[in-house]
Amino acid sequence: MDYQKDIAEILHHVLEDELSVDEIINLLEKPKSDDHGDLAFPAFQLAKVFRKAPQEIAGNLADQIEDPLIDRVQAVGPYLNFFLNRKTVGQAVVQEVLAAGSAFGEQNIGGNENVILDMSSPNIAKPMSMGHLRSTVIGNALANIYQKISFNPVKINYLGDWGTQFGKLICAYKKWGDPEKVRENPIQELNELYVHFHEAAEEEPELEDEGREWFRRLENGDEEAIELWQWFREESLKEFNKVYDRLEITFDSFNGEAYYNDKMDEVVQLIDDKNLLKEDQGAQVVYLDDYDLNPALIKKQDGATLYMTRDVTAAINRYNKFEFNRALYVVGQDQNYHFQQLQAVLKEMGYDWADEVLHIAFGLISIDGEKMSTRRGKVVLLNDVLDEAVNKAYEQISQKNPDLDNKEVVSEEVGVGAVIFNDLHNERTNNFDFDLDEIVKFEGETGPYVQYSRARAMSMLRKADDQGIDYKDTGIYNLSDDYSWRIIKYLHEFPSVIVSAYEKNEPSIVARHAVRLASAFNQFYANVRVLDESEERPARLALVHALTIVLKESLRLLGVSSPDKM
Ligand code: ARG
């Protein structure tokens, strides 16, 4: 049910078509205080039409409205306040959630069209950063949200696996590398080789030429160069996959920058055919003056291609392959300028879909440097960060529920879930500090808090089942107290929460709603004796049942699991 729409239809009817249902929906407000009812309609706009004061119109309307959905309507000044019938609405909402199960909230907005998510995209031979983690979890949540409303998400991990740095890395490896060490500790070792190359090149500038030469060989398909590059790539992927496995995130493609190596010539030619390729100090550029942007660099003086060249190529290639409805690039906001340029180049080339090439930017995470990095030497491996989160989760679970079976499994779900949830609960563009102790807590606006609330609800249902209490009949809904009503309203809101998260590409809208729902449940739990024998007991349990479904689905959309016991 959608009571907002139902009320709008009732109003539309008494207004004799003065305003359309959609116009009324847009005007309806959620009053700040419960004293003003559940929905409020401001009558200002009608003053002109009816040539009366809004106060008078509100008063007249109030007298005309009667419906089983509505308990009472009150005119307060120019506002019309609706108090809904809590039993009728509550019954409809609970029934709908229980009938739909995890499908509750599904809607057809996307018409099965493809949406590309360019996400995660770490650089091989380097540690995956907290920024890549953000990209991974935001991209994954958006993919789930788009899928929920009938888009077909395509998750692409655009690995940073090409560029002059790999020539340097190969060069460094040839000089100082040890295959054993690389196999043992690929990221750490390769990263060190690369750093060492730069230090050495300060003394010995010829090294730069050697590095360039190796990259040239790589680009031209030299066997030895390709073999080493492939090996580095594989070892790096193994390391990245450890993190993806724990996050339970999969990709539809790992076509990274290298994939476009042999596809760039054609695109550069295309740019030239459109008369857009201009020479600027020996380099090839596309001028973007009309967009107030600096020229986009397509080829360097020495003919080498760039990050931009590959991104233009990838975008065109992806459009030809997927005819995407939109392409979302989930990348830190420090690359804002790059994506403005990318879109502008595509526009200059005359692609009307360029408007749907969107940079989904996010803020930076800073970790408490001392706590996280120094202990382990130079690089912070995300896998270690997850380990630490899981250990902290384990400590808490052991305290709260020492007898719990499979504590290890649950701790993994809670620890990893805590990291993901924290990331998504923060508004996308915010910068924030990463404080492991805080985010793994069972209280506050955390993932474990939401998981724990649901687990408590599940335990209540298990007890009811054990006692043979029947709450599966949804015809029994008879609750009108404030605690139950608050839960009903949040359940009712869930489908529209998904839509706003989609419209703003903002998973935090789902995460915040989940926290509100969990906290509404905790107040209910603290004030209502659910399992005590009463006329309301079956309805209360049905409400709790509906709540567990929506909490689980919210967490699923965010990519967080829901342990039944914790
Ligand atoms: N590998 C890049 C980095 O770590 C991110 C790639 C983002 N995606 C893209 N299509 N440019 O900075």
* Class of secondary structure makeup: alpha/beta
Question: Rough shape?
Answer: flat
Per CATH, which architecture of the domain at 392-558?
Answer: Orthogonal Bundle
Q: Which CATH C-level class of the domain at 392-558 is it?
A: Mainly Alpha
Lateral arrangement of strands in the main beta sheet: 5-4-9-10
Binned strand content:
5-15%
Computed Rg:
29 Å
Mean pLDDT: 94
Helical element count? 22
- Annotated CATH homologous superfamily of the domain at 392-558: Isoleucyl-tRNA Synthetase, Domain 1
CATH topology descriptor of the domain at 392-558? Isoleucyl-tRNA Synthetase, Domain 1
Total strand segments: 12
- N-to-C terminal Cα separation, in Å? 33 Å
Biggest sheet statistics: 4 strands, parallel
Catalytic activity: tRNA(Arg) + L-arginine + ATP = L-arginyl-tRNA(Arg) + AMP + diphosphate
Enzyme class: ligase
Family: Belongs to the class-I aminoacyl-tRNA synthetase family.
GO molecular function: arginine-tRNA ligase activity; ATP binding
Description:
- The chain is α/β, with parallel strands linked by helices.
- Among the domains are: 3-84, Arginyl tRNA synthetase N-terminal domain (Gyrase A, domain 2, 2-Layer Sandwich); 163-255, no CATH class; 392-558, Isoleucyl-tRNA Synthetase, Domain 1, CATH 1.10.730.
- Helix content is 56%, strand content 10%.
- The chain is built from 22 helices and twelve strands.
- The strands form four sheets. Strands 5-4-9-10 form a four-stranded parallel beta sheet, sandwiched between helices.
- The longest helix is centred in the middle third of the chain and has 25 residues, at 223-247.
- It is flat.
- The model is unreliable at 369-377 (pLDDT under 50).
- The chain binds arginine.
- The site of arginine (ARG) has 8 residues, from strand 9.
- Its main location: cytoplasm.
